[in-house]
Amino acid sequence: MKKIAIICISFLLLLSCDNTKQSKNDDFTVGIATFSHETCTFCPRPTGIEEFEYYGLPLEGDEVLIADSYIRGFVDRTQEYGGVQLEGITSPRDAVGGSSGSWITKEAFDKYTGAMQDDIRTNGPYDGIYLSLHGAMAVTGIQKPEAEIVRRIREVAGDIPIIVTLDLHANEDHELSDVASGVIIIKRYPHYDTYYQGERAARLMINTLRGDYTPVMSTRKPGVITPSVYQGTGVSPAMEIMERARRWEDRMPGVYVSVAFGFAYADVPDVGATVMVITNNDKELADRIADDMSEYIWRVRHEFAGKKLPKAAEGVVLSIEAAEAGKTPVVIADQSDRTGNSTHILAELIKQGAKNFCIATIADKKLINQLADSGAEKGDKINVMVGGYADEYAGEPVEISGTLEYFDKFGRFDKTAVIKFGSNNTVIITPELHQVTDAGIFGDLNLNMDVIDIISLKSRVHFRRGFYENGLAGAIYEVDAPGLGPADLTTIDYKNIPKDIYPVYRRD
Ligand SMILES: [Zn+2]
């Protein structure tokens, strides 16, 4: 008898698992969307619909549920809890060129926020919405884009929990926390904890939906702006700031303490560090923690924003010395180049007679097209001009005579070129900016890493994943060549940032 009852219940459960919202297993339905961009407003090329649809039309339905690692964390954790049906809301893909893209057009912003609204009107209502945003989007004519995204979603979704996750390069202020129910920001750079913070967002969402948690937020702007190259959380004081946030979270159960260091290469009014704290309906505690975190960031502002990096010539001297001392591979982080087209390090390595070096990579679409048009093939002897034109700081085109060792697909790119020249030197040409974060690229392009002494990357901190944390690099030099992303922020001609921000306007 008992056995028959169990079989009947199982059968009923099977019947109810038809994935509709009416399913008895699903207490709540949560919509998920993403709209992410880190906008370098000083870069030359605007980001429009063409850029957002370069890799395909916007994601729909289940495609959204695997769009990024924040969302995967959110989805996995939600499934562990059970009782929640997840639905993807129409979302744009990553824009081509990533953070080398400048101001997002209002047309693109309106198109994708409009598509989200239409989708919610058609497929809603939802009990909650989770948004995976980056937080450093800059849109022509819209002052605080992420807050505006949430506002537009709320217009059609109503007064429901809207939980947002952000990259730590986000530029935000209270406008976002005023309209979102909760904001959680990753704590690690390199960004190891995207999945984990997505999981925490799921926990916050579910507890809020169940009525066990009432998120209350406090937001502070310490008034400090720092270049990305100083923000790696493996070094102080970035490490201590995040450690302090984790300490608060450990001491006070149910508290979420987030810090965005900000993205300095965006000329926007909410630029710079942001503290965002969520508590369970305890505004006084949220204020206290937010004040403590904000005051701490202000106290360490001098070491956080005021280091000095070698310029191109000095950085290359140091790199060659390290290579000759056997500390290979030496990694040069060409940290200031935001378009990926700059040739300062390449020119300096040639000038100083460096051997066995590899530039990974220079973004040069013109050269890729030129090689394709001329029918160039692997093994061809070529004489070409490389890079040095995409922005005012990109340097001069550099003449390279050598052998085309590779000209084929690589990752997302239809064509990537590897040119060998001089004393075992290599330059890799990609059609768009490509930030190399590990040594995988060398194997993919048939390059033998054992014979490369110096590697120059267009990266600030992310390369530390695959070159420092695994002990691969013998020495690392972050070099501040001329570029749109200088380490010395006082050299940038900002128009829209707060007039009292350290160190651009306040120097004390
Ligand atoms: Zn980031």
Describe the structure.
- This protein is α/β, with parallel strands linked by helices and 508 residues long.
- It folds into 2 domains: 288 residues, Response regulator (Rossmann fold, 3-Layer(aba) Sandwich); 177 residues, no CATH class.
- It contains 15 helices and 18 strands.
- The strands form 4 sheets. It has an 8-stranded mixed sheet with strand order 13-14-15-16-12-17-11-18, with helices on one face. The chain has a 5-stranded parallel sheet with strand order 3-1-5-6-7, with helices on both faces. It has a 3-stranded antiparallel sheet with strand order 8-10-9.
- A hairpin with a 2-residue loop joins strand 14 and strand 15.
- Helix 4 packs parallel to helix 5 and helix 8 runs antiparallel to helix 9.
- The N terminus is likely disordered.
- Bound molecules: zinc ion (ZN).
- Zinc ion (ZN) binds next to loops.
Note the main attributes of this structure.
alpha/beta; 2 domains; globular; about 500 residues; Rossmann fold; five-stranded parallel β-sheet; disordered N terminus; about 30% helix; eight-stranded mixed β-sheet; single chain
Topology diagram in text:
Elements: H1 2-16, E1 28-35, E2 46-47, H2 49-52, H3 69-81, E3 84-88, E4 102-104, H4 106-123, E5 128-133, H5 145-157, E6 162-166, H6 174-179, E7 182-185, H7 194-209, E8 215-220, H8 238-251, E9 256-260, E10 274-280, H9 283-299, H10 301-305, H11 312-324, E11 330-334, H12 344-351, E12 357-363, H13 365-373, E13 381-386, E14 398-410, E15 413-421, E16 425-430, H14 440-444, E17 454-457, H15 464-467, E18 475-479
Parallel strand pairs: 1-3, 1-5, 2-4, 5-6, 6-7, 11-17, 11-18, 12-16, 12-17
Antiparallel strand pairs: 8-10, 9-10, 13-14, 14-15, 15-16
Helix pairs in contact: 3-7, 4-5, 8-9
The chain binds zinc ion.
